[in-house]
Amino acid sequence: MADNDEQVAKNLLVYAADKGTQDVDRQKINAIILEMSGDSKYTNEKKEKRDNSQEWIATARKKLATFDATQRSVARHHLTKTEARFEKRRHELDAAGTCCAVVDFDMFYAAVEIRDRPELKDKPVAVGGIGMISTANYVARKWGVRSAMPGFIGQALCRRGPEFGMPKTELVFVSPDFAKYERVAGIARAIFAQYDPHFRAYSADEAYIDLTRYLRCRVACGDHASARAMLADEALESGASRLAEAREAARRVEELEPELEALRAAGDDEDVIEVEEDDDDDEPPPSREERIAALEAELARARSLVDDAAGAFEELRGRGIDVSSGDMDVVARHVKKRLAEISAAVDALPALDIVADDKAGALAERVLDEMRATVRDATGGLTLSGGLGPNFRLAKVAADQKKPDGQFRVGAGKSAVLEFLRDLPCRKIGGIGRVLEMKLADALNVRTCGDLIDNLPECYCVLGKSAAMGFLHEVALGCGECGGPTDDGEEDDERVIRRKGLGNERTFRPVRGVAALTEKLVRIAGLVSERLVKHDMRAAKWTLKLKTTDFRISTRDTATKKTGKDKYVRSVKAIVKLLKPLLLEAIGEAEAAGTPLEIRLMGVRSSDFEGQYVPLARGQTTLKDVKMKPASPPRPQPAAPAAQKTLADVKFKPVSPPPPRSTHPAPASPASPGATAGIDGADVDPATLSELPPAVRADIERQLALWRKSRRSAPARRPPPKKPRTLDAFLAAPAPAPAAPPPTQVDEPAVAQITSMGFS
Questions:
Q1: CA nearest to 216, candidates 346, 111, 101
Q2: Cβ distance 154 to 133 under 8 Å?
């Protein structure tokens, strides 16, 4: 096999991995994989990506060729500031005794099937079919069979084993039973929740568990049962969950009852519920009677959940919650307050010194071993591999170190983390895939995390202040996520970034045509809708993802046009109504190009959730963080519409030298628009008056009228000096004699006061 083809198989085909094939001819396995892949659309698409990567690598090398000392200094300055921020966060987490665990079932689907069919234990087994393999057991991996590999390639590898040092055999295919796998996963999740009630599971076979608070309780209480009771009140959690379901069902009843009544009142020919039909749809739309039956069934389910509120109240009353109001929303607030009190009591416990205290690390390892043993006993012998670390990124890497049925801990503290990472291949880090691995190796000569930290300035030269650079810098230092919001997003702190998106996607045999693709859309929209209902969430933004048979991926976004609460939706009908135009648009574009749209993967994703907090960028502050300087009250100013000039825009003429002093009144000057109190009207540019807002112009004209009147009745005054004078200068300056006022207006006390000041 040519070197170029070897790179395609090794670096770009996800199922051409080295795991489990250390004792065989890996190059020959890759040759068979590439031979069986042939000139397929998938392989061609991967080759195209490889060619694009080569262009990126060539551009990166050109940048590095001109990377001089000045640029290196700038890069180091930026990296130093970024590193300080990362290290500050690391110090905070270590001080809190943060300990994260990741547990992962070993060959989960295959292990469940082998548990139920022990005769398959020593045979190469693949869960899936001739089209795609979901999971392969460790026996099959000796022949190079991997997850995400086409089944026909896995079968060929087993049959051609003698070509790379393995005997000929047959790969045993087992059809997947996802309902069974979900039941097993549920058993394990109930155990995980004992250690972290807010653990996260992104798939059926994996869980992310924050042990920090549990370890505090374990040290304080001494045993698992007491620590578990202190960490979370399970009866309270159960009652709260039932109450949440009842509250959601009550809202659903309010939505369904008017819809059902309207449908019952409508005639047979009246379509009160919009049903979109396709001209080429083989199945007729549901009849009025069928729609009524479906709504009645859904309404009955919702009412049964509402009736369960009484049971939830009883469960909560037993835990000391005030349910006398009978209002589910009020009781929910009482529950939330009690849960916050429990959480605060745990947070008040002293933190473990996870960095320097070996006993703390040993306790964490013992707890993880207990958890794995409990799951193994509860699931009939299924094994998990586990990893511990100061953050989830390192814990995930650790979970792969001792597979299968083992565990590993990465020590806390900067020195321990960097020592672990020094020789770790970059590919082991989540987020660094085959393409990025190839770019780092070929353009920057970076293959391990140690190489990465040594070449950070070069990475900065190529990537600049990009998100990718920030990610690689974080990886090089061994920093990462610790804790965080739950899927439910129950946190009240405005700084917590809630879940950004929720979706689902499915791969299937190639499908074309409006009717068939719409059917897929409805099915996937239903899966997303179920998850939104489960988490009591609604979304305003929706994304449709399509992967064609030539493995090209496209996404299209849309958002609801309504406002207020109607902006957020989650029903299947509303989702399909939003996304079907995007699907029709994609079909139309493909037909216009002369290539009918044929899809093998479809996904639906929701985002912009109701009540979602606005995510803050790293380092960004909120209004509460801004320390305002004390300021004097602003002068009252007439409000000016946008894009109009205000008084501040008035351009004054240069002040002319003062005229010779005279005891006679100066002649009145022409009316000068723009005069205000304290400003001589003769000094204002007349051209600005018409450009001012009406309210400002009216105020200026009023004051200008007063100024004119004073000019006619008052003696001449000296123009104000350019600089303010002192009181002594003011008193020393001669002043013009005031005009004699009419006798009826003489104010004798004022005259006496003026005379006493030296004025005549």
A1: 346
A2: yes
- Residues 242-259 as b/e (b if ≥16 CB within 10 A, e otherwise) read bbbbbbbbbebeeebeee
Cis peptide preceding 404, ω within 30 of 0: yes
- Helix axis angle, 456-463 relative to 434-444, nearest 10°? 110
Predicted confidence at residue 104, as pLDDT, reads 95
Q: To which residue do tokens 């009852």 refer?
A: 257
Decide if 260 contacts 299 (C-beta within 8 A): yes
Three-class secondary structure of residue 447 per DSSP: coil
Residues of the chain falling short of pLDDT 50: 1-3, 5, 12, 268-284, 484-498, 613-679, 684, 721-728, 730-731, 735-736, 738-739, 741-742, 744-746, 751, 754, 759-760
Beta strands 553-559 and 539-548 are: antiparallel
Calpha distance 480→430 (Å, rounded)? 11
Residue 733 token pair: 């300056």
Task: Let me know: does 103 contact 385? Beta carbons within 8 Å.
Answer: yes
Q: Give the CA-trace dihedral at 703, 705, 711, 714, to 10 degrees.
A: -70
pTM: 0.65
In the chain the first and final C-alpha atoms are separated, in Å, by 116
In terms of Cβ atoms closer than 10 Å to its own Cβ (0-12, 13-18, 19+), residue 412 is buried
Q: What is the largest CA-CA distance in the chain?
A: 131
- Model pLDDT for residues 216-274, shown as the tens digit of each residue: 999 998 899 988 888 877 667 767 777 777 777 787 788 778 877 877 776 544 444 33
User: Tokens standing for 306?
Assistant: 């509402």
Q: How far is residue 306 CA from its own chain's centroid?
A: 33
Q: Report yes or no: 497 and 622 within 8 Å, Cβ to Cβ.
A: no
Q: Coil, helix or strand for 171?
A: coil
Question: The tokens of 107 are what?
Answer: 């060959």
Q: Are strands 407-409 and 384-389 parallel, antiparallel or unpaired?
A: parallel
Work out the angle at residue 292's Cα, subtended by the Cα atoms of residues 290 and 298, and round it to the nearest 5 degrees: 105
Contact 344, 231 (CB under 8 A): no
